[in-house]
Design brief:
The protein is built from 24 helices and 24 strands. With 643 residues, it is of the alpha+beta class.
Length: 643
Amino acid sequence: MQTSDDAPSARNQPSYESVLSQLTTREREVLALIGQGLSSNEIAGWLHRSIKTVQTHRSSLGRKLGASNRVQLARIAIQSGLITATSLPGEQGSAAAGVRSDAPGEAPALLARIDTTIGSMTGVGLFRALVRNLVNLVDVKCACVCEVIDDGRKVRAIACWTKDGPVADLECELKDSPLEYAHDPLIVGARQNAQDLFPSIQLLQDLSIESFLGSPIRDARGLVIGLLALFADKPIQESPELNLLLTTFAHRCGSEIQRLHTERVLRESRAQLQQAYELNPVPAYTWKVLGEDLVLESYNDAAMTSTDGHVRDLIGTSAREFFPDRPDILEHLERCIRLRTIFKRETQYDPKTVGEQRYIAFTFSFLSPDRVLVHTEDITERKQIEESLKENEARLSAILDIAVDAIVTIDNAGIIEATNASTSRMFGYSAEELVGQNVKVLMPDPFRSAHDDYLSRYLTTGERKIIGIGREVIGRRKDGTTFPVDLAVSEMRVKNRRLFTGILRDLSDRCHAVQEARQAQARLEHILAVAPVGMYACKPGGDYSVTYMSSNTASVCGFEARDFLDNSSLWIDRVHPEDRPRLLADLEKLIKTDRQTHEYRFRHKNEKYIWVRDDVKLIRDADNNPLEIVGCWTEISNRKDSD
């Protein structure tokens, strides 16, 4: 009875051609590698495919070939002629695989031989040894390892070997190279007309190259970064064995190219970091752990400049010697090493190399495995400016707090950010109660309801209601009482923020005074209206035009007050012609006497003359210049008639 590990009987064994006809190219490659004794993980690495993809191919092979396990697949690979073996996996040790006799070389043997030759070589030496061995051991004219450069636009040969020796400085455009074909396939090549495909590569013309075969070199993400290729002056017969040879070493080339690229990036990064360290405008020092202490290991150019060159004499100095009186700095250094961290401290410091006390910002940064990088930024001027700003802020705060007017600062949403002491005295709220509240809390309706609309409209359209204009509004105290307020608002920008400052003056006293003045004026007007005398004011020279007449004038002379104001010469024109010269002459002397009393005849509106007594006084301004004449008219016709 046949077991699961037995190969199919000779009678039922399919022919080599019929076995291969059932398989895809990728399945033949997987079958050949299984026959070599490789695991699924190893096959996935060589083929640059996922383990899941390899397992899918194995399952497909099992279905097509009627094999239930890896041992059966390996036997079929040997019996079908893909490889030869002295033993099978799972039997007497690992398989020692070879290739068909008609294949161009025995792939497993070449693999072992080349692998032994290149050994643990790395770098360009690895690539040169590989292509040299391929040319010598495989019947080809040239072997080449190339990589993609210049952002994928060009191809450069890392190592190229011909029968005559190495070829240097081989470079071409990607579109004119075999690498143009190496995007998706595992194996690329052409059996003929290779010269016609790549006419710009002179080496192929010189070697009369007819065909090429290669395997793409991929990075860890599966992206094509190069090509391992063979070139011959006759058609190259592709086979699983040769494909295995190329894909195996393409995989190793890919790993080495990535390693070299990583080393190059690290070198460039180190160089950039070193340059950044040297050119950093902030003085920097490197301290290295030595026993139980740290010693100064290096410094940058800024440190040399800031210390006038004295730091060079301190290399090798221990931290305890460098900071004998600063246990806090020693603790910071030790903490940085202990916690493997980074932190910053600001302190006053008296550098030995400077000789005066300064404010220094120390930044302690751990550098693996045993170093501390210390940046020392002199912030003395900044500290002085900060102290000056603090003093100015304190001074400004004191000024604002003693200001009689309330001062309120809000943001563009109307939220109160700051107030002064007068705001609390005026409205009854503490500063803590107001900050964070909408400024509407200080307003009664309808101002409260309209405020947000005013502010929003201004921010959107620039339409001003109060900002930059000012107006009289009504304020609301904490107890709910209201009072008149003169409000002036200004806009300012602070760090790209729009803020508004309002200055509010309590108008309660002024309003009371205005009201009292109006009442007094009303009383005076009433007294003048019922008094038997008329009051007037006129200019102190010229035509003595009237500037004011009391409302009771009509009871004295028949004319209304408006008649005198509309006709500036009405008064003088209606003085009796015999009395007018004397009156004008006396008025000219008023500048010396300041007070006068006149009696003269005045033609009433009814065209009859009446006698009036006119008591006048000269009013002067602050500079003692004549300003106005005020007078009091009294009719004395009855007295004159009695006389």
